[in-house]
């Protein structure tokens, strides 16, 4: 076992020695016409070269796998038996040298992921009891600790700036190299770099819970997962390799030409086919990681590249998710009391509309809220100071049997026409207030949606719990195909099921807990990176920093990756067919030339896959 490890650990050294021995053999034979030295040099080169290949073949056979190493080992032994030492030495050298180049180029395709892991902070300056800052291991930092970050240092955790100002390079999270200004109360991410300034931060998320930790975890998981194409090739190789063995045996039986049979073994090796698909996937995932797009596995790439319909949640996805109160109507004399009840109830919720209402009302007398009942997709019903207060949409008012006057209905229609989301407040069965809340459409979303259409997305649909008027306004402004309002989470999921039953491949883009069922159900769930942990966990694609402009890049990248995968399969299969045909229908083909072409084909598919690392969406 130690000998096996010793030999396998020195494959590169064996490759160099083999090359030197082959050169000595040719110089001796052609320059000094010394046949004996040439033969001995080639024999030693063959034995040295085949040793690591034979060990790998033995290890494969132990787990009942007939690998490429098995084919090459048999071919080299056969060439050795028929005393074709030149062929055996050159074939082993080319195989080992090809494996070295293959590993070298594969490492480059993984460089994006390696760069990520190397960016992970290892230590932090933590405030201790006497107020001083001491350098500690990153594992010793807990939530709530105060940390000091100096110019040029990595931010060790996700946190909030307590004091100081500076500019931070957030390329590892967002893909953007332009430094971002940070001051008191600004959020910062682990793994980003403070380019200038000095800041103190409070640790909000540490270790694997940080945004950066999740990026590394998700990308590593993505690398480990296999697509349907890879699983097919694994199955194909399992049967194909023994089939090559059988073919060479049949050729030997009928022709009694051992060299021809051995040549078929070498030429039939499916190396480029086995490596072609994984290298495309790893390069595609690496490119995504560099550009703020996390693709959770190669299966996602396959589905995403064939997308028909993209469905969007509205708030926080097509819009900024920071709505403001734009219009209001009060139907009561005791205005401050009603607003106090409303603010007290809305403080119980973390919904964006609730936050907008609380922010708009500002400082006002608070009341004790009791018996809070959250009505899914409707709002909140609670008891405040002995009064029953309902806060929510029109559907909630109807459910609570609140009478809406003609004026109230006219106000509701007007607010909806202006694109407002509605928050109605009733106290003891009477409508007391109506607020219209509007969210701003994300800058640049319209252009991004046009790019998605150019990339072949046929249908762009928005689904929202908001009223139909608001949703229609957004759809008209952005040029969407369909718009559906008054949608509960289960309604969104049902709509996606209906699209899938029609044979469409559907992506859903959202950011909230209520989006999780739809994200999980769609073939491709796309979460905005600043969304909830549940949404990110259940999704297939994450857009870091909630940057919507990454979406066209993500779709273009998956299409390029799928095409690249197909190109690699065609190259690999084409080369094997040409080589095997050349054996039977040409005079020039031999084992050494075949092995050279075989190794070149492996490098071609790897280099073709590596092109994806430089992929950028055309303007």
UniProtKB/TrEMBL annotation:
EC number: 7.2.2.21
Subcellular location as annotated: Cell membrane; Membrane
Keywords of the record: ATP-binding, Cadmium, Cell membrane, Membrane, Metal-binding, Nucleotide-binding, Translocase, Transmembrane, Transmembrane helix
P-type ATPase A domain location: 119-220
Translocase among keywords: yes
Pfam families: E1-E2_ATPase (PF00122), Hydrolase (PF00702)
Major subcellular site: membrane
Annotated transmembrane regions: 12-31, 37-58, 65-82, 88-106, 236-254, 260-280, 565-585, 591-613
Domain of life where this protein originates: Bacteria
Membrane topology value: Multi-pass membrane protein
CDD domains: P-type_ATPase_HM
InterPro entries in UniProt: ATPase_P-typ_cyto_dom_N, ATPase_P-typ_P_site, ATPase_P-typ_TM_dom_sf, ATPase_P-typ_transduc_dom_A_sf, ATPase_P-type_domA, Cation_Transport_ATPase_IB, HAD-like_sf, HAD_sf
Reaction(s) catalysed (UniProt annotation): Cd(2+)(in) + ATP + H2O = Cd(2+)(out) + ADP + phosphate + H(+)
Family: Belongs to the cation transport ATPase (P-type) (TC 3.A.3) family. Type IB subfamily.
Protein name: Cd(2+)-exporting ATPase
Organism whose genome encodes this protein: Fusibacter tunisiensis
